[in-house]
Inverse folding.
């Protein structure tokens, strides 16, 4: 058994910010299934938002309104207000830690335009902003007293009588399963994009943290809201930053038309992601994709070689390596790609995980970053707000934990939580059925992309739900070929597949229930936003295999809902 | 059709590493990582390798293909221009299993060089001012993804465990070149010895193997110049 005051599960930006903060006050460990520097924060490209006003005058009020409108009024406005107000200080703090921001001529942090933001407020480091944030915060963790458990896969979190008691995790290199006894746990495991076939997400983004919460009997919030990013590299789904359009890139269809003028005449290519992804999908559905296929072009040629090389070097490398296209000479084939998980583990504004729609907190349990739903992004996140969310709420969760730890003791660890985790893995180790986990995963991803994608309707969603339940059932009959305890990635991938199957059911269940179109959740059979009935957060509980939906009010403070046009 | 000849080794049960051949095809548009995943999912579930982002930013999937260190995810099979491709774990490290190596010694060196911005003066209320020219000076070095392809390709590293190696030294340059850092002399003293910049034989394999096109040997050269300049003035 390992013993620490705080266990941070996940080593991306949110987790590292939490560990960095809390480790000055408590014995801290980070448990991550991949080395923290391999985390998907590193793949964030375009920027991190704050109203610094370095490019043009800006204010937190404008940042707040843009975020509220972007969220299609589902974001909690008290949360958004805190976030945008503290954003500049967060950016300065990150800069002081060493983040390699690009600079203006006068040496200030450079800022560029981004979708849905009315001012250029994306602070960036060329097009590898996430990379420098991840590496800088990890670097600053090196001199701290933090115990890193790299390549440990979390199996369960123990919550009993409303108090968190630690986790159970599996050491990937040896197959050993151990209890991590702690007073507090901070879950920062990232998003769930791997439920889809075409996704910008890393292979590791299997939403494991969601299942830690579900396994402890806790609900998930707003899971039906999944953001599709408009510029995924065709067939691969790999992200090409929105910064490419922030720098002036065009989207064109087969006739060479900048089609966004018909969907968002004012904002054009810098409308929010949900709006542009639907526009692209509509073009393709109408046969106006390139060569009638499922892609359109992102055209950067008019920006010129110098601009592309200076501001978008990674974008160019990705296009060349994966599509064989040099954006200086040719337009890049792109399609919408599952990108960001607005839903997740419900938390308070302080990062504390809640167990019901009445905001009852779980003592000692926190969540932050993409795995959490606090909810500041509501039905659609604006680009550059997620790095801000991870950096800020990772730290806020740590600050809450520091307060909690002042009066907390280690509570007895419930043996049965460890036993059932061990049993789950043991069953897989001896599984010799006819089904294959990778095959089930591919079927799930195909189904989710086809039937629970950009455009949804009841018929397809019903089919999708039935398919997921069939896959869950078939998972009981899988076979595992690799019997070794040493670095057994077949078992890990099977555990991830099991996680995907669990929470995907909740995504679809919530999507069926929500009979309206809001932000990234678009129902062709209910194409209007319905504030009368649906201005509320979904809270999904899973008890004894059955899903129950309850709802929670949206916090509205400054901006009452109105029509959302761009 | 392409034959992938992959070095397999599970230290818990194998006496020594052995090659196994996997014939796959058609392979149009396939990267090395696509091929590894294809083999794992369809031919041999025990094949072990690390991967995550599959877009050349996380640094998980560095390996050796036909003798060259590279990332599996951004290398097309066709780019290797061979019908037979030999895949091995990165040289210079212990094998944990198959293509997954033990990175602890690599990260020990990373931790040893204080890989974080060190400041002594109080920060201003807003950002520290830095000119675009200074920012450009460490742009290359800050792009490093710590995949270890460079360090593992360095023949000096193979024979001398104590050598810091190109990745760690490039990280030192990243901070020396950043005018916000206030530990230049400490950093230069740390590397002005036989474990540091003077152990580099300018073989340039590091620069050759970097999947992010960072001129690591060039970064070491800048670092050496700084060390000499500071030494001549008795500051190191």
């Amino acid at each position: 058994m390992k013993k620490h005051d705080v266990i941070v599960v996940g080593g991306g930006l949110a987790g590292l910010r939490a560990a960095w903060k809390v480790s000055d006050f408590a014995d801290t460990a980070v448990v991550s299934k991949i080395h923290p520097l391999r985390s998907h924060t590193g793949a964030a490209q375009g920027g991190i938002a704050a109203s610094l006003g370095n490019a043009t005058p800006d204010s937190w009020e404008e940042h707040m309104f843009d975020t509220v409108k972007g969220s299609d009024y589902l974001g909690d406005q008290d949360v958004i207000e805190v976030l945008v107000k503290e954003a500049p200080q967060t950016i300065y703090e990150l800069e002081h830690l060493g983040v390699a921001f690009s600079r203006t001529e006068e040496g200030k942090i450079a800022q560029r335009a981004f979708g849905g933001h009315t001012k250029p407020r994306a602070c960036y480091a060329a097009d590898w902003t996430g990379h420098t944030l991840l590496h800088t915060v990890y670097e600053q963790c090196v001199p701290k007293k933090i115990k890193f458990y790299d390549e440990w896969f979390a199996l369960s979190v123990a919550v009993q009588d409303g108090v968190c008691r630690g986790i159970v995790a599996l050491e990937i290199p040896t197959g050993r399963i151990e209890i991590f006894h702690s007073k507090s746990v901070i879950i920062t495991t990232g998003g769930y994009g791997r439920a889809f076939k075409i996704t910008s997400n890393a292979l590791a983004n299997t939403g494991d943290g969601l299942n830690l919460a579900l396994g402890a009997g806790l609900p998930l919030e707003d899971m039906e809201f999944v953001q599709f990013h408009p510029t995924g590299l065709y067939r691969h789904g790999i992200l090409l930053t929105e910064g490419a359009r922030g720098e002036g890139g065009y989207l064109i269809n087969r006739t060479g038309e900048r089609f966004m003028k018909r969907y968002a005449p004012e904002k054009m290519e810098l409308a929010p992601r949900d709006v542009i992804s639907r526009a692209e999908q509509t073009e393709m559905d109408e046969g106006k994709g390139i060569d009638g296929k499922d892609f359109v072009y992102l055209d950067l040629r008019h920006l010129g070689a110098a601009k592309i090389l200076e501001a978008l070097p990674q974008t160019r490398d990705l296009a060349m390596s994966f599509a064989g296209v040099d954006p200086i000479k040719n337009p890049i084939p792109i399609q919408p790609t599952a990108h960001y998980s607005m839903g997740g583990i419900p938390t308070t504004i302080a990062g504390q995980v809640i167990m019901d729609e009445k905001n009852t907190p779980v003592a000692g349990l926190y969540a932050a970053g993409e795995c959490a739903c606090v909810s500041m992004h509501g039905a659609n996140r604006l680009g550059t707000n997620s790095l801000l969310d991870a950096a800020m709420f990772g730290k806020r969760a740590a600050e809450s934990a520091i307060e909690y730890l002042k009066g907390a003791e280690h509570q007895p660890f419930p043996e049965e939580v460890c036993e059932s985790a061990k049993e789950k893995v043991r069953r897989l180790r001896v599984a010799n059925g006819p089904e294959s986990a990778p095959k089930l995963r591919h079927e799930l991803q195909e189904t989710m992309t086809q039937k629970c994608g950009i455009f949804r309707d009841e018929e397809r969603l019903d089919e999708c739900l039935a398919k997921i339940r069939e896959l869950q059932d078939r998972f009981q009959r899988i076979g595992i070929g690799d019997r070794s305890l040493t670095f057994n990635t077949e078992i890990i991938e099977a555990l991830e597949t099991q996680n995907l199957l669990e929470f995907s059911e909740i995504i679809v269940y919530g999507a069926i229930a929500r009979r309206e179109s809001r932000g990234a959740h678009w129902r062709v059979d209910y194409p209007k936003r319905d504030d009368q009935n649906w201005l509320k957060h979904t809270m999904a509980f899973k008890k004894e295999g059955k899903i129950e939906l309850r709802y929670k009010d949206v916090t509205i403070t400054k901006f009452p809902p109105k029509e959302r046009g761009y | 059709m392409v034959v992938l000849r992959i070095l397999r080794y599970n230290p818990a049960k194998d006496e020594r590493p052995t090659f196994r051949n996997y014939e796959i095809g058609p392979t149009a548009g396939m990267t090395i990582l696509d091929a590894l995943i294809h083999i794992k999912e369809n031919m041999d579930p025990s094949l072990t390798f690390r991967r995550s982002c599959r877009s050349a930013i996380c640094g998980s999937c560095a390996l050796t293909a036909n003798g060259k260190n590279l990332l599996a995810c951004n290398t097309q099979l066709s780019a290797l221009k061979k019908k037979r491709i030999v895949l091995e774990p990165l040289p210079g490290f212990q094998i944990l299993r198959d293509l997954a190596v033990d990175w602890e010694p690599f990260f020990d060196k990373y931790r040893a060089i204080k890989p974080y911005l060190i400041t002594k003066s109080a920060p201003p209320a807003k950002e520290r001012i830095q000119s675009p020219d200074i920012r450009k000076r460490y742009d290359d070095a800050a792009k490093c993804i710590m995949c270890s392809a460079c360090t593992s390709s360095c023949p000096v590293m193979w024979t001398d465990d104590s050598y810091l190696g190109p990745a760690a030294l490039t990280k030192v340059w990243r901070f020396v070149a950043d005018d916000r850092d206030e530990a230049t002399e400490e950093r230069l003293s740390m590397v002005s010895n036989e474990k540091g910049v003077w152990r580099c034989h300018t073989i340039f394999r590091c620069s050759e193997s970097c999947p992010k096109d960072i001129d690591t040997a060039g970064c070491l050269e800048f670092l050496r110049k700084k060390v000499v300049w500071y030494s001549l003035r008795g500051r190191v």
Summary: The radius of gyration of chain A is 22 Å.
